[in-house]
Amino acid sequence: MLPKAALVSALALLAVAVAAAPAPGIPSHYSGDAQKLADPTYGPIPGESDHYNYNWGLERPFPGNISDPVFPTEDGPPAANDHTWQNLLSAEWVIFEFYQQGIETFTDQDFIDAGMPNTTRRRLLEIRNNEAGHLRIFQNAISPTSVKPGPCRYVFPLTDPKTYLAFMTLIEVSSMAFLSGLVQEPTNSPMERGAMLAIAATETRHEVWALMDIWKTNPLGGPSDTSFPYARQVLYTTNSMIVPGSCPPENPEYPHPRQLLPYLSAASDTKSLAPGSTVRLNFTDPNNQPSFDDKTQYYAVFCHGLRNVSVPIETSAWPEEDIWITIPERFETKGVIVALIADRVGAPTKESVVAGPSMVMQQPLGLAAAMLGGGDAKP
Ligand SMILES: *[C@@H]1O[C@H](CO)[C@@H](O)[C@H](O)[C@H]1NC(C)=O
Ligand SMILES: *[C@@H]1O[C@H](CO)[C@@H](O)[C@H](O)[C@H]1NC(C)=O
Ligand SMILES: *[C@@H]1O[C@H](CO)[C@@H](O)[C@H](O)[C@H]1NC(C)=O
Ligand SMILES: *[C@@H]1O[C@H](CO)[C@@H](O)[C@H](O)[C@H]1NC(C)=O
Asked: Of 2.60.40, 1.20.1740, 2.30.30, 1.25.40, which CATH number belongs to 259-379?
């Protein structure tokens, strides 16, 4: 028989062992079915299955049809890039749902009546399927020690096919720009950088299709698309499409880490966002307005292609008087201009950004939703 002291310490050891065991820890309000997704070989494999190409059903394609978060299956610290892939997966849920809800809302005939080709909805289905493949790719990129976030509820501009498709082109160019920033994260492996570049190229194909077939315009975007370093600032603006409080509570904060910058948009009466236009600004979230200090000179910084231009702005009379910016005349009317407000010329650090960014779309010009800064799809 063991002496009493030995028994007590054996029990203590057992308690420690139980606490440290890799507990799956799935909250009881989930069925646990989503845990099958932890196995990367479960379900159709992107690149091998036409599930992510030619899938013409209305129902959500795998893994978009499984909406619970996937909980860690191993114990331990997160992998170096788990936050990055979690950010990407949360953003991808926004994009996937945007396409899913579009093909649910509009019929083939709705697009034809709006003057679009009769293949429009079928192409949108194919893009949706590609986006489902992105969901799976990003789920698989998150290591087994971190949660794979599930979808939230979203609000999209689904009033008519034209507004919807204008928003689509904005989402696609925004994806291209934020991926150019994500690639720059120092923790990326060469393989991860390659994967992000390949995804950005996919979004570019979607965008080129829209420019050619939907907008019947020149699809080329100048010698370089816009590279913007602060990817998470772009992702943060997509929070304006998320119904507050609708995300699974176990999802990580999105994006992580984040800066809570005031949303920046053009005022709703804006006529043109072409180079040379003067635009009145709207900080569209009434609960998150910028604060400008009298002793600081602020700048509107415009990033386009691989360069940026800074223009001093007058902030001392704000909020009594609006802030106006002029989009630099020197830019070509191609691709996208990323606009933000900074307290330093060139916004050389993410901390120097005080509001924005906002996506100023140049192709095609004159669309309803040409500037995404959190103001266009508020719930
Ligand atoms: C999700 O879709 C896949 C592929 O179509 C199907 O095999 C699976 O049963 C679906 N799962 C659920 C929960 O609907
Ligand atoms: C779609 O449009 C093309 C040409 O614009 C036409 O040739 C084709 O017959 C149409 N298809 C259907 C199913 O209406
Ligand atoms: C500013 O944005 C808010 C929120 O989207 C909107 O209600 C308001 O009308 C906008 N004001 C202007 C002048 O654009
Ligand atoms: C703007 O350009 C300057 C000079 O090349 C660079 O140092 C800065 O990081 C750029 N800013 C952004 C936001 O890309």
From this structure: 2.60.40
Ligand 3 and 284: CB distance under 6 A: yes
* pLDDT score recorded for residue 357: 96
Nearest Cα residue to 75 out of 146, 16, 18, 13: 146
Neighbours of 97 (CB within 10 A): 20
Would you state the pLDDT for residue 271?
83
CB environment 82-94: b (16+ within 10 A), e (fewer):
bbbbbbbbbbbbb
Task: Give, for ligand 1, the residue of 33, 35, 65 to mutate: max count of ligand atoms closer than 8 Å to Cβ.
Answer: 65
pLDDT of residue 369: 40
Higher pLDDT, residue 351 or 362: 351
User: pTM of the entire structure?
Assistant: 0.91
Boundaries of every domain in the chain: 31-228, 259-379
